[in-house]
Amino acid sequence: MWQILRRNPRALYWSLGLHLLFGLLFFVSAQFTRPTVDAGSRSRVVLASIVSDRALESMVADIQSSDAGRPDDPASTGEARAGEAEAARLAEAQRAEAAETARQAERAAEEQAQREAEENALRAAEQAAQRQAREAEQREAQRQVELEAQRQAELEAQRQAQETARRQAEQDAERQAEAARQEAIEARRAAEAEARRQAEALARRQAEEERLAEEARARAQEEQRRAEEAAREMASERERLRAAAELARRQAERERERERRAAEAARQERIAREATRMAEDEERRLAEDIAHQAREQAARANAERSARQETAEESQRTREEDLLSALASEQLAREADRYIPVIRDRVRQFWTRPPATGRDLVTVVSARLIPGGDVVPNSVRLIKSSGNTSFDQSVIAAVYNASPLPVPSGPTFERFREFDLTFSP
What we know:
The protein is 78% helix and 4% strand. The chain is mainly alpha-helical and 425 residues long. Strands 2-1-3 form a three-stranded antiparallel β-sheet, covered by helices on one side. α2 (9-29) runs antiparallel to α4 (74-259) and α4 (74-259) runs antiparallel to α5 (262-349). It starts with a helix and ends with a strand.
């Protein structure tokens, strides 16, 4: 018991409190004064005087002496004798009365002593009974205290067991959460590695695209250089044509001077102007063609680069979205998988084993749920039978009886709107 009290000190306080309460009740109920006895219940006491023989003889002698002092006549003598006889009779009667009174007093004293003895015995018996009752109450109170202490100890042991179970459950939950965190960390690391790999591939593709763009720019620059060289050639050709025109003009002038024909000079000038105009038109057309080709090549290079960049960005966004979607689906699947054993345990609590059911039976049922875990009526269907009809029906009944089932909320619940449950004993 002391071990119980050491484990549960509150039981000691309860015990002390109950002892104090019973002590207070005993102090209040105890009779410390002698109970009063009704006067009518006692025997009547007769007051009597006991007279001895000597006193009686002395009284007779006094009477005789008083009679002796009287005159001695016959009448008086008869009266004296009669008085003596009366005195003797009275003395005898008084003696008998005294003896009877003594006997009555003795009987009364004996009866009084007997009554007092009986009253004392009854009082002692009552006190003994009260003491025994108090002792019995104290023993009962002590037993109740011990029972209460035992119950408190059992409750404390049960509480400690529950606390131990709760701590174990918390530790299991922490371990599961830690495992989930480790899985999430591994998944995140894998996702980061995949993202880095894809980023490196994208960087390589971008570097390749930049290289191709640089080559396109180089080609455009080369084309521009060639166009500039062509323009310079055209300019040199124009200069040559101008020089030729100048030479023709000079020749025309010399011819005009030689031949003094104004018409020939005009014709030569017209030819020179026409040659100059043709050279300028040819130079302008060639420059415009070169600029147009350069603009078209630059536009094509920019369009190709923009298209490749947009294609790469769209591909990267698509890959990232696919990766995030896969990660989210995997996370939802892991979270949903944690609820399957809980749902199976919930159904097992409401499952009643049919007679002659083995432990190797396995059945698969399908159920539809609403948010909150309630099973939709008439929605539980048998997907795969165990071969034992009573076992299959008992599992379906257990699913209905276990409603509402423990399910998550939010997006994870969508996996439980209609799901399959594998059940075995």
